[in-house]
Amino acid sequence: MSRMFKMIRKHDTSGVSGTGHVLTGIVFADGTTVVQWHSKTSSIGIWKSFDDFLAVHVTSHPENETEIIWGETW
Question: In Å, what is the CA distance from 37 to each residue of 24, 34, 74?
């Protein structure tokens, strides 16, 4: 089963990704995670796992007060 999510940031300590809804992603059944950044330097990233993505962009920056909101599942 695949799941969609969006990432919300209250702060942007790097000054690159911005605040608010900064990213939309999908986690595929095998764990592969694909994300699309919605910043002025928009990009797409592919991660081997959701945990790898979290480690780099969420848990390593607690000061950003990042929230993951899960959406559609299929």
Answer: 7, 10, 22
- Neighbouring residues of 67: CB distance < 8 A, sequence distance ≥ 6: 7, 8, 9, 10
Digitized pLDDT (tens) for each residue of the chain, 74 residues in all: 899 999 999 999 888 889 999 999 999 999 999 999 998 888 999 999 999 999 999 999 999 999 999 997 65
Tokens 């945990």 sit on residue: 51
Cα–Cα distance list, 49 to 11, 19, 30, 39 (Å): 25, 24, 8, 22
Domain ranges across the chain:
3-73
Distance, in Å, from the CA atom of 70 to the CA atom of 48, rounded to the nearest integer, reads: 19
Helix, strand or coil for residue 15?
coil
